[in-house]
C-alpha cells in the first residue's frame, strides 16, 4: 500500500511524509526532491530551461514508477493531481490525503518560507498572492475529488496530523 499526500504548496506534505513513514516503519519519498536529484538541478531550473509541460511529464513518470512500490508515503508536488493518469494510479495504490488549509494561511506560510522564492517557480504571470488565490481556486475541486480524506492542517501540530492520518488508515 502507498499513502499519498496531496495539496497546495505550503500545506505540509514534505514535513509530514517522513513522520508518517517513521511511525509505520515505511519509507518516505518527496517526489520534488527525487526529480531534483535525478535531474541534478532545481525544479525552478527545469521550469526555466524546459518549461512547465516538460516538468509535468517528468513528474508523472517518476510518480508512475513510485506507485509500483509498496509501504511508501509519498509527498507529491502540489500540481501532480493535474495529470489524470497520475490520479488514477495514486488512488489505486492506496489512500490519498488532501492536506488543506485556508488560503490566507497558505499565503502566510509561503510568504515566510524563504525557499518559496528560491526553488518554487512561478506558476502564472500573476503577482504572488493573486497566483495563490487563482491557482487554489482552480485546484481545490481537484484536490477534493482525488482525495479519500481531507485533513485540515490549520491550528494543528505535525504530531496531531500524523495521529489523525494514522487513525484514518488503520
Ligand atoms: C508545484 C508545486 C511544487 C513543485 C512545482 C510545481 C505546483 O511542489 O512540484 O514547483 O504546481 O503547485 P510543492 O507543492 O511541494 O511545493
From TrEMBL:
CDD domains: SK (cd00464). It is an enzyme of class 2 (transferase). One of its GO terms (molecular function) is ATP binding. One of its GO terms (cellular component) is cytosol. Keywords: Amino-acid biosynthesis, Aromatic amino acid biosynthesis, ATP-binding, Cytoplasm, Kinase, Magnesium, Metal-binding, Nucleotide-binding, Transferase. One of its GO terms (biological process) is amino acid biosynthetic process. Substrate binds at residues 32, 56, 78, 139. ATP binds at residues 10-15, 120, 156. Mg(2+) binds at residue 14. The keyword Nucleus does not apply. InterPro entries: P-loop_NTPase, Shikimate/glucono_kinase, Shikimate_kinase/TSH1, Shikimate_kinase_CS. Transmembrane segments: none annotated. Binds 1 Mg(2+) ion per subunit. It is found in: Cytoplasm. Monomer. This is Shikimate kinase.
Amino acid at each position: 500500500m502507498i499513502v499519498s499526500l496531496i495539496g497546495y504548496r505550503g500545506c505540509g506534505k514534505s514535513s509530514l511524509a517522513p513522520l508518517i513513514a517513521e511511525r509505520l516503519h515505511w519509507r518516505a519519498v518527496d517526489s520534488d526532491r527525487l526529480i531534483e536529484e535525478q535531474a541534478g538541478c532545481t525544479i525552478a531550473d527545469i521550469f526555466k530551461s524546459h518549461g512547465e509541460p516538460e516538468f509535468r511529464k517528468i513528474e508523472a513518470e517518476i510518480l508512475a514508477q513510485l506507485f509500483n512500490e509498496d509501504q511508501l508515503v509519498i509527498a507529491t508536488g502540489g500540481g501532480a493531481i493535474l495529470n489524470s493518469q497520475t490520479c488514477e494510479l495514486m488512488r489505486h495504490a492506496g489512500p490519498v490525503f488532501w492536506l488543506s488549509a485556508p488560503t490566507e494561511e497558505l499565503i502566510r506560510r509561503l510568504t515566510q518560507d524563504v525557499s518559496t522564492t528560491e526553488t518554487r517557480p512561478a506558476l502564472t504571470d500573476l503577482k504572488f498572492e493573486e497566483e495563490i488565490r487563482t491557482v487554489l481556486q482552480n485546484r481545490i475541486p481537484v484536490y477534493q475529488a482525488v482525495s479519500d480524506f481531507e485533513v485540515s492542517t490549520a491550528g494543528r501540530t505535525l504530531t496531531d496530523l500524523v495521529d489523525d492520518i494514522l487513525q484514518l488508515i488503520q
